[in-house]
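For the sake of transparency, this paper describes our internal protein records without simplification. The tokens are whole numbers drawn from a learned vocabulary of local backbone shapes. One such record is reproduced below, unchanged from the form in which we store it.

. . .
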Amino acid sequence: MRNENINEKERCRQLMMAVLDGELSRIESDELQSLFKKYPDLKNEYLSFKQLKEVTNTMAFKNPDKEIWETYWYNIYNRIERGLAWFVLTLGASILIAYGLGEMFADVWKDANLSTILKIGIFAALAGLILLLISVLREKLFLRHHERYKEVKR
């Protein structure tokens, strides 16, 4: 019996939300009225939701002052410029590093004095170092942009 009451109350809450959204049919409206008779506390809950909806429908956003908008756009432009600058810098540095590493690998590979196993060891160590460096940089950049407590003020 208790589980049935919970289901009826949940159904009543669903119908209350539907009537507040203007999506209730005539049959569902009759069902809601019978549930209100059975559970008067839900009728009070409905009235409070209805009052809340009326209040929120009459609310309007306040337009910010001109100074706030100017500061906002100034900060947006700065962020876009700096983001673009970091992207170009990273791209250029990546190209230079890739070219330098390619030249170094070519020189090591062409060196006849080094054994094949030594060449493979050098390539593996450098590849591991590069992957580790990229992983650490990526993690640091991710954490910098996703600081959990950035908005908290002391």
Observations:
- The chain is about 80% helix and 0% strand.
